[in-house]
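FAQ

Q: What does a record look like?
A: Structure on top, sequence underneath. For example:
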């Protein structure tokens, strides 16, 4: 039998396959009744742990099982302002205690107003920035993005005045055992051919032309027209992707419990709050990942956090 690769399932579902506009994802959706449901952290690496399986429909329910987890370091987010939306118009209200060093590193809105002037609006969103200088990744420029505020307009205004100019920590947003939607920019792999990019089968060694290209350009190509569904070479990776219903198994503030010997490969050691998410997360180490509460949670998953028995601290070198 020839060495033929089977096409990956769902390989045609993402279009356009172009590079993301920036290195961390952009979110535009509105959140529900909860005050805060978004946070961000830096991907440190992966490890594995064992826990007593509390998934109700699992074949290993009640037994001690092992799963891979992704470690996300979550330094506090600093609220630098509030953005009010009224229809298509928006108005920015920035805190007065911003340092000159921060204003030099990130581009803040030029027009700023006093938060006490907020009156007529449809909804509010926080303007927050990360604090990468609290980590060991060597990054100096913080990321600036918006975080939604849930609830009615009066509740949004109260929450905005409460946290204006202050910090948000991971415990204020998520709890252990919750389900998350993970938004990330995947690893960039550059310009790749159709076999690697779409997983098409290799052609016979007797083919007249190359073996790693599509066997046909489709039935309607005589007019110089080729359908977009035909697998061609192009950009692979560095795309914005969303994974639904990831399981948050732990939130911690003691890095000694998860730092492996020698630190995480290509990252270093974790120094701040962290979260352990079951399974893999898109993107390389040091990339910013944004989490939101699950919009369509899996009802078969337990709402309680698992009882963790062991976390591997062996060297990843």
């Amino acid at each position: 039998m020839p060495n033929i690769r089977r096409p990956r399932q769902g390989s045609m579902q993402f279009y356009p396959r172009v590079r993301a506009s920036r290195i961390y994802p952009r979110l535009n959706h509105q959140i529900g009744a909860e005050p805060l449901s978004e946070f961000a952290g830096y991907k440190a690496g992966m490890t594995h742990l064992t826990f007593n399986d509390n998934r109700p429909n699992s074949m290993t329910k009640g037994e001690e099982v092992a799963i891979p987890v992704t470690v996300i370091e979550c330094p506090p987010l600093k609220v630098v302002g509030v953005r009010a939306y009224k229809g298509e118009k928006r108005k920015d209200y920035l805190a007065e205690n911003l340092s000159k060093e921060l204003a030099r590193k990130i581009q803040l809105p030029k027009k700023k107003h006093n938060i006490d002037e907020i009156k007529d609006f449809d909804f509010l969103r926080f303007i927050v920035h990360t604090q990468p200088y609290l980590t060991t990744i060597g990054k100096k420029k913080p990321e600036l993005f918006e975080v939604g505020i849930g609830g009615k307009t009066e509740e949004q205004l109260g929450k905005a005045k409460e946290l204006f100019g202050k910090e948000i920590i991971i415990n204020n947003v998520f709890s252990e055992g919750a389900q998350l939607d993970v938004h990330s920019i995947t690893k960039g792999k550059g310009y790749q051919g159709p076999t690697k990019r779409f997983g098409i089968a290799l052609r016979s060694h007797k083919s007249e032309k190359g073996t790693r290209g599509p066997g046909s350009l489709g039935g309607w190509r005589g007019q110089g027209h080729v359908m977009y569904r035909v697998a061609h070479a192009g950009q692979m990776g560095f795309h914005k992707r969303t994974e639904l219903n990831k399981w948050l198994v732990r939130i911690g503030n003691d890095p000694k419990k998860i730092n492996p010997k020698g630190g995480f490969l290509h990252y270093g050691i974790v120094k701040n709050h962290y979260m352990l998410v079951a399974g893999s997360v898109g993107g390389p180490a040091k990339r910013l990942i944004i989490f939101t509460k699950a919009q369509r949670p899996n009802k078969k998953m337990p709402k309680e956090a698992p009882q963790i028995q062991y976390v591997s601290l062996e060297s990843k070198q």
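Q: Is there anything notable about this one?
A: The chain has three helices and 14 strands.
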